[in-house]
Amino acid sequence: MKPNQIMKHLPHKTIERLSQYRRALLICLDSGKTHIYSHEIARIQHITAVQVRRDLMLIGYTGTLRKGYNVKELIDLIGQIIDATEGINVAIVGMGNLGRALINYFTGKRSHLSIVAGFDINPDKIGNTMSGVPCFGIDEMESVIKRLDIRIGIMTVPGDFAVEVADKLVRAGVKGILNYTPKPVNVPKDVYLEEYDMITSLEKVAFYVKMHEEEA
Amino acid sequence: MKPNQIMKHLPHKTIERLSQYRRALLICLDSGKTHIYSHEIARIQHITAVQVRRDLMLIGYTGTLRKGYNVKELIDLIGQIIDATEGINVAIVGMGNLGRALINYFTGKRSHLSIVAGFDINPDKIGNTMSGVPCFGIDEMESVIKRLDIRIGIMTVPGDFAVEVADKLVRAGVKGILNYTPKPVNVPKDVYLEEYDMITSLEKVAFYVKMHEEEA
């Protein structure tokens, strides 16, 4: 199968894991490692080696028994499967601490994804460059998104603005939204929405800590 | 069953969803809503009403057909199930943009979880209070964590420090770690680890945007 045929049949969770495998593989490559076994990837990701082999078989890659997977080849193949050929422009809406943390975090990490604009309502920020990204006013969103061909919006505004910002992003034509606000939003079917709530993660950790202590 | 017997049998995903239901219910309560139907919760969370009803049955709650669930009662019940009775103290390691974003995000949102300390290596930050949280040096970690009875550590340091910080947190005795660095870490079995990589979320959104465009 060609990469674009493979793509359509990949489960959501496999996409996530492929991204995570690549992240681990890039760290290995940096440290000079040329080959890696499925059980090594599995240990880094806290999953089973069977799971790793199953995911990589889905994208048509098999290693050799003796040496394992070729790190460089596998990074390239995962890129062919999950990355866009042309690169995708991304905007951050909300240039507070979280917005700036994300810019610093992403910058230089993945060449096919570029954060090209930030938006805020604070007049002190508008017109300035923050962490290398120009900041525009929220009311310029629609025109800037179209002009810069931005296709993904990351929302880092306070919860009270979530619904309004999501609507604006959709109207401006983005096709993917990553919502980091504490408020869930609704988008049309042709826009892909990923939501992450930091409180849920912390509450989950707290739940297991509580369980552990009650058992002890 | 008593709450602590119910707890042990809850799937991971149900814990996450209970936290998310509560988040949605708190927003409803704020807006003056007293009752809610499973399909309304489902719509907010982008899941099915059957899923909502199944999760709530697992914690022994059923609404009335005519009025739905009592919002206040359900918030309290979810709290009994997932919250610790005594409250849990939390530390942030890495007081950069992300660390401070998390403090601002959590503060006042959940009374049973308190961020009581931050740690950093920057001498300008150590000894100061940032967003209401005192900042200590990384080398004071073990003693401060013990003194303040901190049981959860949130890691927001650069990836290069991830392994070292996780080890220090474990040695200091925390029982839960939330890892926001780009590097996976290993912890002993009695410590609960939750890892979140922002690049994976963005790559997932980018993948679906790419798919959508190639289909169009």
Walk me through this protein's architecture.
The structure is a homodimer of 216-residue chains. By secondary structure, chain A is an alpha/beta fold. Chain A has two domains: 3-82, Winged helix-like DNA-binding domain superfamily/Winged helix DNA-binding domain (Arc Repressor Mutant, subunit A, Orthogonal Bundle); 88-199, Rossmann fold (3-Layer(aba) Sandwich). Chain A is 47% helix and 18% strand. Chain A contains nine helices and nine strands. Chain A has helices spanning 3-8, 12-30, 38-45, 49-58, 71-82, 97-106, 141-147, 162-172, 198-215, and strands at 35-36, 69-70, 88-93, 113-120, 129-130, 133-137, 150-155, 176-179, 192-195. The first copy, chain A, has a seven-stranded mixed β-sheet with strand order 5-6-4-3-7-8-9, with helices on both faces. In chain A, strands 1-2 form a two-stranded antiparallel ribbon. The longest helix of chain A is centred in the N-terminal third of the chain and has 19 residues, at 12-30. The first copy, chain A, is globular, with a radius of gyration of 20 Å. The N and C termini of chain A lie far apart (52 Å). In chain A, 41% of the residues are buried. The interface between A and B is large, with 70 and 70 residues.
